Amino acid sequence: MKELFLKLIVLFLFILDLNALEIEKVVLDLNLSAGSKAAVQWKRVFKSEKKMKRYKIYSLSDEVKMKLEDYLINHAIDSDQPTVAGGF
Amino acid sequence: MNRYIFAMALSVLSLNAATDSRDVLIDKLLKEVASLKKSVDELKKNQIVVQKRQDESDHYIDEVYDFAEKTETRTLEDKLKLGVAFKTSLDNFTKKYADGHSVDSNNVWSSKLMLNVKADISKDMKLYSRLSMFKYWGSSIEQLYTEYDNMQGRVPSNSSLYVERAYLDWFLNRDGYIPIAVTIGRQPSADGPSHQFKDNTVRKATYSALLYDGAADGLVFTFDISKAISNKHSFLRVGYAKGFEYTETSNDISNAFVGPSDNNLKDTNVYGLFFDTTIPNIRHSLVQLSYSQINDIVANQLDINTTKNVNIGDISMYGAMVEVSDFHNSNIDMFVHYGYIQTHPNNQYYSTYGGLLNSNNDNSSKNGEAIWLGARYGFGNRQKYKIGLEYNYGSKNWVSLTQGSYDIYNKLATRGDAYEAYFMYEINRYANIRLGYIDINYDYTKSGWFVGESKSMNNVDTPENKLKELQSIYLKMSVNY
Predict the structure, then answer these.
(1) Number of domains chain B contains
(2) A69/chain B closest Cα distance in angstroms
């Protein structure tokens, strides 16, 4: 029973891994910096074909585009930032 | 003679041929000059157009520059960056007592306003503060524990604005091998991991909320050891906080705000060591290990009668937590926290209430432990919908520093079990609404209290006064902007 449980966990992690999309890697590959713009400015980028082409985003699939937009907005300069003592 | 005439004829012919060639050349040159003149005219015309465009462009750049400078001036003028958060809750409680009777408290509304103020004083110095107002709707009464230092702004009171946070982050040696930051003041020690999942925000404080949740004044050194141990987001923190400072106003001295120290009642001092890191190859993970020493705990912080009020001993507190957000892009967030405490009583007792987790005349050391785990799953378009489950357990002698807790139940101090389930809808990236159910089962008395012996709910003297189970169906709306 315990063995079956462990196998199920491993299978679950494997399936998750298959579905994984490293959006940070896309950001790095495209040389984008989320903190260089405010959320509304990133939104503007994704509404303009010309701007998307400029940032080499236009040719990405719709799914990647959507996740990339979410990522860039969530990490924009005016987004909610983690708060800790000595937040480097 | 014939030879002479032939030579003459040949010369004339040659001269004619040279004259013809020169004419052709002149024609060609004239055509080229005309062509060049035409090109020069065209160039002049183009130059006029280019100059005109250049003038227009310069004018446009000047306008943009003026606009950018105005914006820059405005930005530089804004020394403070403001943020605001607002929460409104509707709770419907059912309180079940140890003797079996129950009481309902329905339609209990509360609101909390938080004004976050940040100042980037310099590249290496930043000031943060949070001013909070938290009250029950329609309540004119300042609640019983409002004035306790770690609960100010953290528990419902009147509409007063409390300073929940006010601290300076001062970065030293930022580009060094081990950058250092010093955090001075009223610390970011409330609403810590992993409460952010329920709020749909990012991490909001430094320490595991199972151990620390409340306002605290102190000094924390943060060492960024990421390079030293080759693991990103790795920090070592050494902290000191003042848990209690004895002051009293006196007519004997001219300055009424400086009270004499009293040797009968020592200050409570808290020392801590915290290690934050991430799990290699798992994004958005947080691991925290901690050790804290709370020395000279004061029985009642509001009782200035030093002949009655006493220090009741020390507590050693150990913690460990692991948290992962969006595990492998599954939209699943999960966490587990563990806490362990050991008391060191000093054989002093506060009136009839007892000593440190002890009854009067009992000076034995006590151990307590607690676990808190939970998960949240986001689904639907852009994970606008979320469901979450949480469970926590505390043993008979579990106690921690969560008196200024995230929720009004202080559920993580429970000596017993607590379950919570919620459904959240993200209205937009700043606002959400949450419907939840919480069920807290108290197996022992005095959850959250340092003073007095904890007793089994099956063996209490006044069961009609002892809360055995607390249930609440709640609806909360949060805005964080």
Answers:
(1) 2
(2) 11
